[in-house]
Amino acid sequence: MGTIEIIEKKKNGEELTYNELKYIVEGYVRGDIPDYQMSAFLMSVFFAGMTKKETADMTKVMAESGDKLDLSEIKGIKVDKHSTGGIGDKTSLIVGPIAAACGLKIAKMSGRGLGYTGGTIDKLESIPGFRTDIDRSEFIKNVKDVGLSIIGQTDSLCPADKKIYSLRDVTATVNSIPLIASSIMSKKLIDGSDRILLDVKCGNGAFMKTLDEARMLAEEMVDIGENIGKHTVAMITDMNKPLGRNIGNSLEVIEALDVLDGKGPKDLKELCLTMAANMIVLGKKADSMDIAMIMAEGAIDDGSAKRKFAEMVKAQGGDQTYVYDTTKFKLSDKVIKVTSPDSGFIVSTNAEEIGRASVMLGAGREKKDSVIDPGAGIIMKKSFGEKVEKGEIIAEVYSSGIEKCQNAEVMLQKAIKIGAEKPAPCKLIYERIEHIR
Amino acid sequence: MGTIEIIEKKKNGEELTYNELKYIVEGYVRGDIPDYQMSAFLMSVFFAGMTKKETADMTKVMAESGDKLDLSEIKGIKVDKHSTGGIGDKTSLIVGPIAAACGLKIAKMSGRGLGYTGGTIDKLESIPGFRTDIDRSEFIKNVKDVGLSIIGQTDSLCPADKKIYSLRDVTATVNSIPLIASSIMSKKLIDGSDRILLDVKCGNGAFMKTLDEARMLAEEMVDIGENIGKHTVAMITDMNKPLGRNIGNSLEVIEALDVLDGKGPKDLKELCLTMAANMIVLGKKADSMDIAMIMAEGAIDDGSAKRKFAEMVKAQGGDQTYVYDTTKFKLSDKVIKVTSPDSGFIVSTNAEEIGRASVMLGAGREKKDSVIDPGAGIIMKKSFGEKVEKGEIIAEVYSSGIEKCQNAEVMLQKAIKIGAEKPAPCKLIYERIEHIR
Predict the structure, then answer these.
(1) By CB distance 3.0 to 4.6 Å, which of A100, A230, A362, B97 could disulfide with A147?
(2) For A158-197, how does the pLDDT look when each residue is reduced to its tens digit (9 = 90+)?
(3) Is A1 on the interface with B (CB under 8 A)?
(4) Residue of B82, B215, B306, B382 with catalytic role
(5) Would you give the DSSP letter of residue B138?
(6) ipTM field
(7) Interatomic CA distance for residues A7 and B167, integer angstroms
């Protein structure tokens, strides 16, 4: 067995064995297989695909490349939630506290933003003092005491995914369903969770542009989940427009707190309640979705979800006063109000372009070592389907530099289309995929 | 324009522009584009293919990466001959002298062996003293004086092809028709020739396993040739068995000299005469193939072709006495005679496996820096379609080590199949492709 033979086999559409995938992944992590062979392999996977067995094996060998997080000290069913990434997706900040308030123990590792999508860790760090790099014992203690802790991924977990993802990013091999599925699920395999809720984003602001693609990815991941013994539910949700109205780190924490206060945009609130209810059922804190939904709504109405958020902030060193007074968050000082060029309705919003505009403003990373401006971002004053008058403000952009604001204004004018007729409403949740056992 | 965007575009099946191909190839030669991006690009070309325009543009940008060989001092139409590579393919050693004896000026740059196929330069270097690294002025002087000179490719010609070929070799991206076509034709574009005869090998010992593939490659290269203003004829010839009986460097020179003596295997002689006749017509030394065929046969019969070979050897510092007494070539001292396990007919010969056996014996290179043993190789005592008795010698293998001979014996026993019935004869020449202008 050699690297060239394995690439050749994949190229010819044959199924690779567990040992062949292990040879490639382990050899690459060790540095024995060079980048140029791995990138040829990844491109052949993009074209030739992988069978379900190969994707499951790929997930396993990636997971085996590093440590495992042991959460056995935490009693009960641990439910994890993962989103494939979208614009304005601050659901983890809302769903986590609701689920914890309903009795679940949420021990979550999250990523940083890369490309045009944001990351939960960056968002939390916009709360002064909030530490996302606490060690394992403190993490577990917080989950036990508070019911909720969110930390960053450590380097020792899944080094294969880290190294392969970096290479995919620069070799045009990101949008491969087996590679995305194995990347996400390899981290789920070792994060100590028992059950998984996946939020597969679908639309112009997601990796998966069509429902068919999103369904393929969702099915693939649900299959892997069952294959590795973790019951997995996937929801396919809309990303043809940003989720909620705020995009940017401080801005998204503010909006998440609005929802926990019972306010905030309807789409964001509805999605978060549905996801929290799914987690409550997965974690066996309710027998039916109806009951779970009532529990989730109750956790907002009685303020317990918000208190969980505040307790997590305190336990991780963050300034709790920001939670109760969101005017304390400093937004960037340069602002441009983007106005509508016409009267009519917002008939399309290119979420990917809006995401790119937010990165340009400083809310995300253009490169891995870019520094984030927590106060930068976009407030969508008008959203998909809404009526606007010519000259009316449709968005506000915040940045440290006026030029960046000007560039973002141009990008937003292109990304948001105004039409004469009100468009048909967009679905929020397309499908829910669960394999009944 | 950026590298990732260009890979993405090719991956999505779009046609790249001349400037995009130039960006990729030049950037790679300069070292600005890393191997891992180039290999992802090459794999995407393997899968997505290239249009005729892209392949022609790729050929041009590769040719533009280095120097051009100026042969304008040599009068007359310069005809070049190129084989895509096979086992026992010593045609250049025979066709060159015949064509030169018929009045053509043959200024040929050849390659070394790599993988399971041999190289003309390695074969010539088995003649003691023969120098293949003479400089341009000596090369041109020899062509003028003798009518024939064969030298190795210099590094300054087509550095892009050199660098890209090395990468393809280790990333399983060799067998791509546009990449093979542009690699071969980029060198033809700058080698000073006016017209080109291509020998596209087809069969189990060639890159192109089927006639359809061989035809696609041939058509592609003929198109490029016409596109770059060099009239090009392609012959598709058989490589389901080694050409002639001898495989190995000294062994192939001996067999080539046999043919120039009017002896040697029928298939090899017939192919060489047909190819020489095509070159004579391309070089306008005859009006018809019939007349050219008579001229080529005459050059063997009257000894003038052999004299050309001897003159070339002398001009390039080689020991001419070897040409007239081939028993002077020392074969390797370890020999095993491979015998037939059954009585019957040779019904199939896996030429690629036989080629690999010869490399293992020391006749070729397993890696780029492997040292060749000029005396190593294989004599096929029996060939495809011939009758054999059980225990009769079907091949002899020569090497410096007895273990290598034993390994080669095992490989040959697998590669050569004996059956009860005489197989249908195999065609020598499948097709001739020429675009009438």
Answers:
(1) A100
(2) 889 989 988 998 899 988 999 999 999 999 888 889 999 9
(3) no
(4) B82
(5) H
(6) 0.81
(7) 14
* Residue A185, amino acid: M
**Residue A132, SS3 per DSSP:** coil
Neighbours of A19 (CB within 10 A): 12
Q: Do A7 and B172 touch (CB under 8 A)?
A: yes
pLDDT values of chain B reduced to their tens digit, one per residue, 437 residues: 789 989 999 999 999 999 999 999 999 999 999 999 999 999 999 999 999 999 999 999 999 998 888 999 999 999 999 999 899 999 999 999 999 999 999 999 887 776 777 789 999 999 999 999 999 999 999 999 999 999 988 777 788 998 998 899 889 998 899 999 999 999 988 888 999 999 999 999 998 999 999 999 999 999 999 988 899 999 999 999 999 999 999 999 999 999 999 999 999 999 999 999 999 999 999 999 999 999 999 999 999 999 999 999 999 999 999 999 999 999 999 999 999 999 999 999 999 999 999 999 999 887 767 789 999 999 999 999 999 999 999 999 999 999 999 999 999 999 999 999 999 998 999 999 998 76
Q: Which residue shows structure tokens 């952009």? A: A397
- Six-digit token string for A342: 């016409």
Q: What is the phi/psi pair of residue B377, to 5°?
A: 155, -165
- Nearest Cβ partner of A35 from B11, B36, B43? B36
Verify whether residue B266 is a known catalytic residue. Answer: no
Chain B residues touching A11 at Cβ < 8 A = 43, 46, 172
Q: Do B40 and A39 touch (CB under 8 A)?
A: yes
Residue B106 β-bridge partners: B148
User: Tokens representing A375?
Assistant: 């106060």
pLDDT tens digits along B174-218: 889 999 999 999 998 888 899 999 999 999 999 899 999 999 999
The token pair that represents A239 in the structure block: 């990303």
Which residues touch B153 (CB under 8 Å, ≥6 apart)? B109, B110, B111, B187
Of B34, B37, B172, the CB nearest to A8: B172
In A97-125, which positions are buried (b, 16+ CB within 10 angstroms) versus exposed (e)? bbbbbbebbbbbbbbbbbbbbbbbbbbbb
Residue A91 touches chain B, beta carbons under 8 Å: no
Residue from B122, B161, B238, B267 carrying the catalytic annotation: B161
Q: Distance of CA A229 to CAs A160, A223, B351, Å?
A: 21, 10, 49
SS3 content of chain B, % helix, strand, coil (to 5): 45, 15, 40
Q: Which residue of A has its CA nearest to B10?
A: A172
Q: What is the spatial distance between Cα B381 and Cα B385, in angstroms, rounded to a whole number?
A: 12
Containing H/E element for A28?
helix A18-30
Q: What is the three-class DSSP state of B259?
A: helix
> CB distance A36–B170 less than 8 Å?
yes
Pairs of residues, one from chain A and one from chain B, whose beta carbons lie less than 8 Å apart: 70
Cβ–Cβ contact B1 with A under 8 A: no
The distance of A151 to chain B (nearest Cα, Å) reads: 32
